[in-house]
């Protein structure tokens, strides 16, 4: 491997699953991983972080081909593969996705895997020593005494005892099982370890022990590490660089210190703001993400995060306050998602007037309650919408959309709002922007042309 070559280079990796039900066409696929790219250098720890369900575990399994990738390249330059160039047809001889059976066996010797739940990855009928030694047997070490010696040595290196060889998984605590999982990942002397949420099921004190062990073992064995987690505080502690993943895509990547101190993507800002602080005097409550996570079968157009983004871009010609703009967009998105329950809003309005008789017609959607509010006003109040929007064109569309919702015509409401309540974030997919020092993010706020045309909320 040359000086400039990363140990692992993931390029445009995709993993799509066929959609359920009657839809068998490609458009109904679940896009769990949808074109991610990153590099891992020799001796480096890269953290792949994001909310549960963002696709990070699927990405890990696709990299080591426990799941077959749909598209993309996984170039592994370990072993004697360094310095190879592409074939005449454009493919690469180091592309794991194209390895045949023999090459895959070699690759699996060079890459270890730690799973999220170590208890389920050990056979309860085998001693832990035999489970750890099994890869040695698969890869040709037939001498049982040598296998046992290797395993006993590893048990000591991960903080257990050689005498633990003959014990069974149920005899160990969660933290001890994760030490056993690390020993098994190390048994073939790999160059890269893929650790999928290795401490998420452990108590805080045990987490610290395992993270310290990972750090020590990485230095001792000269390993590279792909560390997958949903916990930003853990990633900050152990990783050299961080890649932030949302709904199948990487939205930001860079050195850990840079990403945590000056996050560039709004999703990263929200994740960083949610890290607990030990200072009881702090009043920072973090950034609240509104809305629900979109369906990976039908992700939003443009930036996939715009449906939940606190910094979503307002059209330059829309004459409303930023707070009103965000509520208008949330209202439109709620209609599109079918999340507005008019009957529930009306029921809350009725039960909220304690001891008062309802006026005639209050049971109908167009009626007024005892306080004189109409169904349209109650719907505005439910979404904290202004009584009247300052921009006449927007107010006209909003009033028409509210009327359509009350009539049960959501499609007509969406069509009306889309003409004015539409963010540039959904009109095109953001390109990755280099902020220097290996720090990149994909957000249209950082597009020079778009940025010059708008005023922006303050960044962290």
Beta strand %: 5-15%
Helix content: 25-40%
Stretches where pLDDT falls below 50 for ≥5 residues? 21-25, 353-367
**What do we call the CATH topology of the domain at 8-17 and 31-247?**
Rossmann fold
- CATH class descriptor of the domain at 8-17 and 31-247: Alpha Beta
- Backbone shape: elongated
Average pLDDT number: 87
Structural class, from secondary structure content?
Answer: alpha/beta
CATH architecture of the domain at 8-17 and 31-247: 3-Layer(aba) Sandwich
SSE topology string: EEEHEHEHHHEHEHEEHHHHHHHEEH
How far apart are the termini? Answer: 39 Å
Query: Could you give the count of β-strands?
Result: 11
Main pleated-sheet profile:
8 strands, mixed
CATH-assigned homologous superfamily of the domain at 8-17 and 31-247: P-loop containing nucleotide triphosphate hydrolases
Largest sheet strand order: 5-6-7-3-8-9-11-10
C-alpha Rg (nearest Å) = 27 Å
Oligomer: single chain
Separate helix tally: 15
């Amino acid at each position: 491997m040359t000086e400039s070559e990363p140990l692992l280079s993931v390029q445009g990796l995709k993993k799509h699953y066929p959609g359920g039900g009657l839809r068998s066409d490609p458009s109904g696929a679940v896009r769990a991983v949808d074109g991610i790219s990153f590099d891992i250098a020799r001796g480096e720890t890269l953290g792949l972080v994001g909310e549960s369900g963002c696709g990070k575990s699927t990405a890990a399994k696709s990299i080591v081909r426990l799941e077959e990738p749909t598209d993309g390249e996984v170039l592994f330059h370990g072993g004697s593969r360094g310095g190879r160039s592409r074939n005449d047809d454009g493919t690469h001889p180091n592309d794991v996705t194209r390895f045949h059976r023999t090459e895959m066996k070699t690759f699996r010797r060079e890459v270890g895997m730690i799973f999220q739940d170590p208890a389920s990855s050990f056979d309860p009928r085998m001693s832990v020593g035999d489970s750890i030694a099994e890869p040695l047997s698969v890869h040709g070490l037939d001498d049982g005494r040598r296998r046992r010696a290797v395993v006993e040595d590893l048990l000591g290196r991960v903080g257990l005892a050689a005498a633990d060889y003959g014990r069974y998984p149920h005899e160990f605590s969660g933290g001890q099982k994760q030490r056993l999982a690390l020993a098994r990942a190390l048994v073939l002397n790999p160059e890269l370890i893929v650790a999928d949420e290795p401490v998420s099921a452990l108590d805080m004190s045990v987490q610290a022990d395992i993270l310290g062990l990972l750090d020590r073992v990485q230095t001792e064995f000269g390993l590279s590490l792909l560390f997958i987690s949903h916990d930003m505080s853990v990633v900050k502690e152990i990783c050299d660089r961080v890649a932030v993943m949302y709904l199948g895509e990487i939205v930001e990547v860079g050195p850990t210190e840079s990403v945590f101190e000056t996050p560039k993507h709004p999703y990263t800002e929200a994740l960083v703001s949610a890290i607990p602080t030990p200072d009881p005097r702090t009043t920072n409550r973090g950034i609240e993400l509104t809305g629900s996570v979109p369906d990976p079968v039908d992700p939003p157009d443009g930036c996939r995060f715009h449906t939940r983004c606190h910094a979503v871009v307002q059209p330059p010609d829309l004459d409303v306050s930023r707070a009103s703009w965000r509520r208008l967009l949330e209202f439109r998105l709620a209609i599109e998602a079918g999340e507005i329950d008019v009957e529930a809003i009306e029921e809350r309005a009725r039960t909220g007037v304690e001891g008062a008789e309802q006026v005639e017609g209050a049971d109908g959607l167009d009626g007024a309650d005892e306080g004189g509010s109409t169904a349209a006003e109650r719907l505005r109040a439910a979404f904290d919408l202004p009584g009247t929007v300052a921009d006449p064109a927007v107010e006209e569309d909003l009033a028409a959309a509210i009327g359509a919702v009350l009539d049960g015509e959501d499609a007509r409401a969406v069509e009306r709002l889309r003409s004015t309540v539409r963010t540039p974030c959904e009109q095109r997919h953001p390109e990755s922007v280099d902020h220097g020092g290996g720090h990149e993010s994909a957000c249209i706020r950082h597009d020079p042309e778009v940025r010059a045309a708008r005023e922006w909320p303050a960044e962290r």
